[in-house]
């Protein structure tokens, strides 16, 4: 089966998404997600201008060889733009393979390892009472795992909290939003938030929290130690992970589990973290870490060290990534949890999908391939609308990690 066409579709049904569509001479097509929040057009161009012409005429079934060809053949390895582009090709080719075999992707990977995929939802509030109300709603909806984020008293703004009553969406149109940050205020406040959750709801739900790269290693160690009584499922991205060895310091002081990796692109970004057992969950995801072919490699490597998966799943990864991720999660032996933020209604219409949600558990469905398609006519009604992620500054104006 030969590839005869490859097109990039950029659309903004509620938020921007980049999708690659590959067509074959047997009339089967597959799609892959290539969305890189705030830098979408760089990946769209990488695909359109440099990758799509190389795909024409290739055997659609040679997925591994195509992956190696795009990775090694570019000479310029890794990086979010390159790896998102490779991921989209890989996802689309696995989709085609599934359709050709008339099998859902999870069966091609080796079959289901569990009945369903546990997902965590986002409970966010401007203050503790509001965050607790959202937490209660998630329990009602059946969530078994819930991430909580909350406004910090006397801090002008905070990450991870929805504006108004809408969904949480960090990217904004127009100028880059500048938020302010104080590690001291945050560190004093956040244990009180977890205490309030455990006091009100007990220990029946898995409690998660995202530090979003805001602390230094020693501060993260202090946080992890101080919240041990609340038994978090994980504390996410406690400090930036460019310096993987920095996590040793956190590990020496606390048994609070650590999840890292939503900004990683390859196995090399997490090699030391996994090998030295400095983390418990790896958050690398299909779209940003080279697709199914590469994430399988990361997950198998992580399994050697009892590190489990916890794939990134914000609304800025498209419903295509969500579908493919659920197949991956249903199969992967060392599964931990999957993030599920939900999508704007328009996005769910543009991307018809076979996946479903039921009381905190998700299933990819039985449609051949990854089970997600794109309605191109509808997609064309939502033109690209540039938006940027915010930045954070310390209270004295110093640019900080967002
Ligand atoms: C998460 C993330 C996101 C990111 C977003 C950036 O844990 O889901 O931290 O909310 O900020 O994906 O594009
Ligand atoms: Mg995160």
From TrEMBL:
PROSITE patterns: MR_MLE_1, MR_MLE_2. Signal peptide: none annotated. Gene3D superfamilies: Enolase-like C-terminal domain (3.20.20.120), Enolase-like, N-terminal domain (3.30.390.10). One of its GO terms (molecular function) is magnesium ion binding. GO terms for biological process: amino acid catabolic process; carbohydrate catabolic process. It comes from the Bacteria. Pfam families: MR_MLE_C, MR_MLE_N. Residues 129-257 form the Mandelate racemase/muconate lactonizing enzyme C-terminal domain. NCBIfam families: ManoateDhtManD, PRK15072.1. This is Mandelate racemase/muconate lactonizing protein.
């Amino acid at each position: 089966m030969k590839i005869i066409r490859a097109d990039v579709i950029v659309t903004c049904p509620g938020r921007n998404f980049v999708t690659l569509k590959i067509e074959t001479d047997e009339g089967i097509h597959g799609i892959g997600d290539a969305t890189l929040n705030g830098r979408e057009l760089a990946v769209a161009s990488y695909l359109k201008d440099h990758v799509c012409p190389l795909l024409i005429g290739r055997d659609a079934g040679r997925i591994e060889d195509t992956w190696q060809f795009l990775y090694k053949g570019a000479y310029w390895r890794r990086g979010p733009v390159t790896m998102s582009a490779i991921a989209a090709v890989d996802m689309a080719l696995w989709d085609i393979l599934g359709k050709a075999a008339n099998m859902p992707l999870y069966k091609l990977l080796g079959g289901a390892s569990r009945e369903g995929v546990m997902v965590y939802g986002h409970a966010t509030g401007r203050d503790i009472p509001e965050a607790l109300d959202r937490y209660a709603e998630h329990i009602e909806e059946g969530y078994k795992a819930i991430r909580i984020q909350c406004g910090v008293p006397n801090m002008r703004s905070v990450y991870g909290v929805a504006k108004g009553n809408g969904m949480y969406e960090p990217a904004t149109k127009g100028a880059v939003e500048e938020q302010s940050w104080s590690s001291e205020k945050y560190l004093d406040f956040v244990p009180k938030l977890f205490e309030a959750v455990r006091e009100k709801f007990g220990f029946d739900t898995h409690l998660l929290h995202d530090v979003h790269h805001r602390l230094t290693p020693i501060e993260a160690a202090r946080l992890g130690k101080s919240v041990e009584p609340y038994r978090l499922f994980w504390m996410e991205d406690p400090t930036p992970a460019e310096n993987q060895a920095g996590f040793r310091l956190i590990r020496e002081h606390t048994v609070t589990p650590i999840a890292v990796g939503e900004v990683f692109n390859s196995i090399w970004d997490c090699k030391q973290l996994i090998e030295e057992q400095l983390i418990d969950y790896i958050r690398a995801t299909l779209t940003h870490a080279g697709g199914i072919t590469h994430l399988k490699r990361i997950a198998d490597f992580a399994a050697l060290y009892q590190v489990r998966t916890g794939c990134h799943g914000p609304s800025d990864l498209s419903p295509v990534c969500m579908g493919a991720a659920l197949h991956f999660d249903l199969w992967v032996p060392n599964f931990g949890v999957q993030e599920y933020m939900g999508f704007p209604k328009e996005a769910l219409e543009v991307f018809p999908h076979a996946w479903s949600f039921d009381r905190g558990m998700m299933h990819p469905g039985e449609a051949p391939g990854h089970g997600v398609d794109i309605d191109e006519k509808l997609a064309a009604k939502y033109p690209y609308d540039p938006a940027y992620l915010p930045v954070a500054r310390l209270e004295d104006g110093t640019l900080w990690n967002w």
